[in-house]
Amino acid sequence: MHHSQTRPKPTATSNSSSLCHSRPSCSSRHATVVLSCKASSAPAAQYEPVPAVRGGLPYIGVLHRTPVNQLFSFVEREFAETGVRCLDLQVFGRHAVYTRHPEDIGSVLHNPSKWTKAPLMMKRLDRWLGEGLVSELDPARHAAARDVLAPAFRAQSVKDLVPLFADVGQQLAAALLSQAGSTIELEPITRRATLDVIGRAGFGHDFGALQMAQQQQQQQDQVDIVKLFDDILDTSMLLIMNPPLPDALVPGHSSYCAAVDALEAVALRLLQERRQQGISPQNRSLLSFMLAAQQAAPGGLVSDKHIRDQLMTFMLAGSDTSATSLAFCLYELARRPQAQQAVRQELQQVLEDTPIDQLQPDAFSSLPYLTGCINECLRLYPAAPGLARIPQQDAVLGPHLVPQGLPVVVDFFSCHRHPEFWPRASEWLPERWLPSNLKALGPQHPDAFMPFSAGSRSCIGRYFAMLEMQVMLAVVLRQLSFAAVGGEGSGQAAAAQSFTLKSRDGLRVVPTAAGR
Ligand code: HEM
């Protein structure tokens, strides 16, 4: 996720080279700037200007060379070619500093009071996400909202969801088997599966998204949420670039508004249904926890609008991210028959022939090779490829000074491919995550692997997502083999963003029943 704004000036001493820093289109890479820095203990220190991305044009930046939805891949190539730590990227006349260095990423994310979320970006998504957990800006309200939801994400609550994950995994396997021998696109079908998971686990409601894909015709009262997201995601990505245009002129805005309104109607219907059914202690969904908090403190934080915002947030945050990771994982395995075989052997060794519904939840977290495959996809294809933060005062990133207010994008996509911190960085190597290989092949810095972010705004659903993916992949790969269309290969799949990360060219595979 990206955000940029007109570049504020650093607190600079009168020095001719400081002008170079405040004019980031200057491509001088080595000039040293003398600045007085509020963030440094020294009254004056020497800093290097953040180099500008090469070949940018004054207003549109690099958009003549790359589409908006491929900025992260573009920046990664630029990092790889120049070897720099940070880059200044201008789009629509607004600047943002991208950093791929784990030290910077750690220091930004672990200091949320000094580095806040970008208010302008959140404001432009207000109609959709409101003040849900991802977009809430007020630290006290955020902490209180997170406390309400936290019980649903405790280890035991998530382990109790294993039968549900397995059931949806089974439906996914059946949907794939029904198309055995044909070419299928993975992303649309994994999006349906994870939406069904969050519907049932989070809201106690079955969206029937997987089933809907198999019906010839949609029934009259059915809403296909996956289609609504198609209308929301591209436009929301443009909105978070914060273009200096009224929202109504942003391409796709009217379909975006219509889809947001339709999604809101779904959220409000869920709320009404759950309220009518009443809350039972057995129902430990997110929606039930919120309704219980509302009943306990009427007029407090948890209003109906608050619940609406959280439902809208979780429909996306709890489904799109895991769907991307699942799809890339199946695709990478399809391209590597040996790795696929190794997963199947591990499944056989650890799970034997025990029916899935009789397995203990802990069995799924004892699959190191499968978990290595998931981690390797989270590394190369992080569903949230980067996050924007705003420094509340002048800040130092390595040799660079970042002036107060200038957005910084912590670039997980590039960090996860940084050759200094990842041996054999460009290779997809599930074995790098095996305990015996971690030292030699794993991340060479504690903050080099950040798919779920870090600190108080890190992913609340991290453990949920990992167990969901472990169970669903185990269920699917026990029953199906996959071959990649276009053949086997070891290079990376091309990535793009549509709010979250997606593939650029589709992830096509041919499924067959395992053992055939
Ligand atoms: C592979 C799967 C996932 C990945 C890679 C992922 C990644 C992330 C990242 C990077 C953030 C930080 C976003 C930011 O600071 O703006 C985040 C936040 C969040 N995630 Fe996830 N996520 C995943 C799955 C899930 C699931 C399954 C759920 C819910 C069931 C979930 C719910 C959330 C929520 C609510 C937040 C906001 C947390 C806060 O600000 O307190 N995520 N996620």
UniProtKB/TrEMBL annotation:
One Pfam family in the UniProt entry: p450
Cofactor(s) it depends on: heme
GO molecular function: heme binding; iron ion binding; monooxygenase activity; oxidoreductase activity, acting on paired donors, with incorporation or reduction of molecular oxygen
Heme in keyword set: yes
Alphabetically ordered keywords of this record: Heme, Iron, Metal-binding, Monooxygenase, Oxidoreductase
InterPro entries cross-referenced by the UniProt entry: Cyt_P450 (IPR001128), Cyt_P450_CS (IPR017972), Cyt_P450_E_grp-IV (IPR002403), Cyt_P450_sf (IPR036396), Cytochrome_P450_Monoox (IPR050196)
Annotated segments matching region Disordered: 1-21
Chain residues that bind heme: 459
Protein family: Belongs to the cytochrome P450 family.
Designated name of the protein: Cytochrome P450
Organism of derivation: Tetradesmus obliquus
